[in-house]
Amino acid sequence: MPKPSILVARRVPPAVATRAQAEFAAVLPDRDLNAAGTAVLAVEHGVAAVVTGPRVRFDAASIGALPRTVRIIANTSVGHDHMDVAAAKARGIAVTNAPDVLTDCTADLAMLLILAACRRAGEYERIMRAGWRQGFGMPDNLGLRPSGKTLGILGMGRIGRAVAQRARGFSMQVMYTNRSRLPSELEEGAEFVPSLEALLPRCDILSLHLPGTPGALPIMTRETFAQLPRGAVFVNTARGSLVDEDALIDALRSGHLFAAGLDVFRREPDFDLRLNELSNVFLTPHVASATVETRDAMGFRALDNVAAVLAGHPAIDPV
């Protein structure tokens, strides 16, 4: 029996490519495809599945351009705000994501950003790269001690809870707000605060862990940044669309925010270069999942979903 044909429309790690070729008649381009290029190759090869990721914007028209042979679009990421899920389902195409495999790495990076923003790691590193020939005295280059601070978490899902777990190792007091309160066994001592407005004034550090919603207005605006205490630290490993970056830049320039740690931006990769000019921002290029272990697991999870659907079973991670 011939192997089903699938299109892997983004570059993947070698282990993922090897498995795709072993289990399927896999089309593996040497570049990341956009929606139009995905449709062209999907039609050309009559594929039954497309493996893709958040860089490809699948609107209703793009989904309509896919051939009728496509039965599943498997995302290698947890987010799916880059595609019109309703349009896919209307055509009978299953949509899946990879909700569990990114949790630990994203939480690790969130903690890195918290520590780096508080301790001015970017500035220290630049001093050393420049050759460090001038000594510093007691009042110079002072950061904030993250240990013992109050951490506010906006969005207490898998990643938010994993960040809370790590923060407890630094003796942080953890508070969170969420659509609904978690069961006590999942809170693990974290304090539930019923609204963002009630949470913000109590945060020494605020970390975002909400999913993005297409077309939604930013949550962090001039008004919400102003509700944080002066000298707070802001961290975002969730979605750049959650933040009004003009408001963020003004809060950093004015000193209302002590620092920020950012892995995501409203425009990627062409992010707002004004952020690059601010010494009190620690920046990473959307790399929360960028470890060998996690990127392999992301690809394998997408292939697991493809295998299930093409075998006539329900998707493992339906959106």
From TrEMBL:
Domain D-isomer specific 2-hydroxyacid dehydrogenase NAD-binding: 112-288
Key words of the record: Oxidoreductase
Keyword Oxidoreductase included in the entry's annotation: yes
D-isomer specific 2-hydroxyacid dehydrogenase catalytic domain location: 45-319
Superkingdom of origin: Bacteria
InterPro entries reported for this sequence: D-isomer_2-hydroxyacid_DH, D-isomer_2_OHA_DH_cat_dom, D-isomer_DH_CS, D-isomer_DH_CS1, D-isomer_DH_NAD-bd, NAD(P)-bd_dom_sf
PROSITE patterns according to UniProt: D_2_HYDROXYACID_DH_1, D_2_HYDROXYACID_DH_3
Family: Belongs to the D-isomer specific 2-hydroxyacid dehydrogenase family.
Name of the protein this chain belongs to: D-glycerate dehydrogenase
Naturally occurring in which organism (per UniProt): Sabulicella glaciei
